[in-house]
Hints:
The chain is mostly beta strands. The chain is 11% helix and 35% strand.
Amino acid sequence: MNKTFIVLALLPLLGAGCFGSPAPDGEGPYTNEPTPAVSEVMPEEEGPPLLEEAEEPTAQPAVKAPKDSLLAETQKAGAEAVVKNVNLAKPGYVMIHEVADGKPGKIIGTGTLLNAGETKEVYVKATIVSGKEYFAMLHTDNGDGFFNIAKDSPTTDADGNIVMMKFSVTK
């Protein structure tokens, strides 16, 4: 009987934590009144902005590779040059040029016809020698599908510069 009395005496105390809300002053017994709204407790100017007041995120444009570009890195001597990445607006070729007085010289390697778009790991047959530098250069196909130095001119960017990149060769 003593156990029953203790349980019955504790039920109202335990139930107070489950029902009602604290008194408006934050102290004292619980009440059955609803919890006050946030705006009643904290004025708007003191709190963070509400969700509907937050600024809309702005869309950022996607970063695109230039229409005509290439990436040639330092590589080992051998029977071919590797151009890591090529982007073409129109079908074209990658040519390997010797360096003559700091500028592109004689063509020593002619790549195969590449479609417009991105191509990775372009191999061009050309004997490249350790300790020397070369240019990888883009040429635009004139539409016949065969490279002709007189008809397939070097590709230029929007500023009229030839699209090319110098690279060096190690052992």
